[in-house]
Amino acid sequence: MMLTNTAGGEFMTRIFGHPVTLVEAEQLVTEGLATEVLEKFESCLPREKIKSISWIGLSPRTLGRRQFQGRLNAVESDRLFRILSLYQQAADVFGSIEAAHEWMQNPEISLGGKTPIACAATEVGGKRVEHVLVRIADGVFT
What we know:
Mean pLDDT: 89
Shape: globular
Number of strands: 0
Structural class: mainly alpha
């Protein structure tokens, strides 16, 4: 199911131009996301370009090479899509991409004092962030 009339759905539409199904997402990640996806993500966030490339494990020099090639590799694309998905979920929970961004940047007690974006660096950490967001959406704040 794709929700497009939510803050998260609107966010993903801004990034990809249309709602993205999981089947399409898997194909896009496998082929490597266009570097334009990272640029569109950055345009949704306040002053986060340098940090956003570190969130997906890119140095500025590697980013330059990827921009020349026009694509991220599959591993970088997977990391970026995980972060995009978490931002989508957080925007749905908190009502806006700005509120989602604020939450992603602040230490969370339920994540051991780490920021959600720091946890999202790994698949397991991303699952922990998803779990916290589900609990918040369900009204459980501890």
